[in-house]
Amino acid sequence: MLTPTSNSTPPPTTEHQDPGAEAKDQKVRYRTLSPKWRSTMAALTASSILLAINQIFNLGFFVDYVMLDSRYMYLITGVMLCMVFITFPGSKHSPTHVPWYDLAIMMAIGLIFSYFAFNAERIVLEAWEYASPTIGIWLALVTWVIVLEAGRRAGGWPVFIIVAIFSLYPTFADRLPGVIAALSIPIQEVAIFHVMGEESLFGIPMRVFAQLVFGFLIFGVTLQFTGGGPFFINLSFALLGHLRGGPAKVSIFSSGLMGSMSGGPISNVLTTGPLSIPAMRRIGFTKEYAAGIEACASTGGVFMPPIMGATAFVMASFLNISYLTVAVAAIVPSVLYFFGLYMQIDAYAAREKLPGLPREELPKVGQVFKDGWYFIAVFAALIWMLVYLQREAVAPFYATGLLLVINQLTKHRLSFEKLMELVASIGKLLAELAGILAAIGLIIGGLAVTGIAGTIANDLVYLAGDNVLVLLFMGALTSFILGIGMTVTAAYIFLAIVLVPALTSAGLDPLASHMFVMYWGMLSFITPPVALAAFTAASVANASPMRVGFEAMRLGTIIYFVPFFFVFNPALLLQGSAWENLQAISTAIVGVALVAAALQSYLVGVGHLGRGVKGAIIRALIGLSGLTLALPAGGLFGFSQILLLGLALVFFGVAMGLRQSGKPVTPP
What we know:
By secondary structure, the chain is mainly alpha-helical. Helices cover 70% and strands 1% of the residues. Among the domains are: 26-206, no CATH class; 578-668, no CATH class. It has helices at residues 21-29, 35-56, 69-87, 100-118, 120-125, 134-155, 157-172, 187-196, 204-225, 228-240, 246-262, 265-282, 287-300, 311-319, 323-329, 331-352, 365-387, 395-407, 416-450, 452-463, 468-483, 488-498, 500-505, 510-522, 532-541, 545-555, 557-568, 578-600, 612-630, 641-660; strands at 602-603, 607-608. The longest helix is centred in the middle third of the chain and has 35 residues, at 416-450.
């Protein structure tokens, strides 16, 4: 039986991933801790979880002591910032030990955040964000520097540079060109606004993280440690492994599910890629194509409901709507993306005559469900609590508790050592996100205190000349550039502040605008020259990174168009009437299938579309037919459905007529 942990499936070639490569990468990024520091991290992780549970469930520490939200934010942020300086080395000189200066920073964090937590009521009642005592000003300045360094360690130099510029922006805004100029504010006033206000360090990113996302992160890590990853991969092989191109279709299904849990394209590639890529290579996929499929599938998991990483919750807070509304809106675009990927794989496998894996080597569906039925049950319980009870904050905690209890009654129960590994992984994830989101919050503060965000939006609309299409292209390019080197959530938050107001000012739907920048901010993971997810998959497949990047870009072509489609008409986000939604979805599905056929030069039911100049023309016409069908009727441009259907039929008819003319087109 083929399982993620077995060696029963032989590698397809002698080329394989260095088993120490991933471990080496992790050592560079994360500090290797001694037993003493591992225990310290476990204690800090447990403290942060207990603080979150107490606040979210309103337990009052079981003595009816209700803690102010601001006090809670100071305490939990201080704990997690300490975790950042334990987890991430400041330089290559301290990969295995916590140096004295990190210890000093942690002591400073403990003292400063304890002071702020103790004075939380005074900070609110006396408005320290505008007029703080002298000691508060000095402590705020030190906190500012610490948060910048935490952002650098957790998110890298791109995060540090962007955050430093925008958080300091109010201090030099009067010396900038007129378009982005503002009144200058003394640095001490900026510091207290950043640290004691509700729109900067403790703005939307950290508030959503500490009050909503926290539980989902714990659930995602717990799901993987209790065997959720192997279960979903085995289930994918059992259901799809025997189909033509089966391992590639398995990659789509398993990576989509795993990506929804982890919210990170790179970690997703490293989780599912080592199994799916060799299996794809075994049946005849090239290593570049196999790696490209894995990169696209892993990236697409980020916007696959129900969890969608942290971004969906941040988006819901920006829009002041429920998380469920965001998750429902994300269903159709994510389905279109994965459907387009699936159809391309199917067309490629049919064209190249690539079989599935032998059934006798695949796990049985019944056995897979018997071993892991409770993962489905827990997922169902989570969705029930989210959709029916609408308890977004507490649902993941209940789901995690249920999962751990059931898991301990099975053969997969966690040992004490495994439980400590689970806690360590939760700590690493919390530290990473806390460091990044705390820093990103300073960007919001820098723009909020000057009021420049609205000015930038107006200037963008002015530069676009009131042309919505030009504004969208500008937005797509800006989103893509800012998505380079930043996490999806960090890039989205920045764009939601700077770019989305310009899109909504131009008359676009707010939810569609937020989705648009999220999608385009994510596309850098599969688009050269950066393409971090593609390059990670290339390392697993031992293939050329740039070739994998371009392959991933071609395979993910659909996602470059989908954001424009749902901005043109939010019916693809299920924001229209039932008839409008059904009409937009049905034509989009057929259109995506035709675009996939054009990209792979093979149309199911028709065959190969040809080579050379004639083949290129046929493929272009089929692609135009698909794009015309996928473009929603009505909405921004008001195209009628009859017009779009007519154009699509004309393009398709000409393509088929051209294919039938002259000598028959045959596969190579």
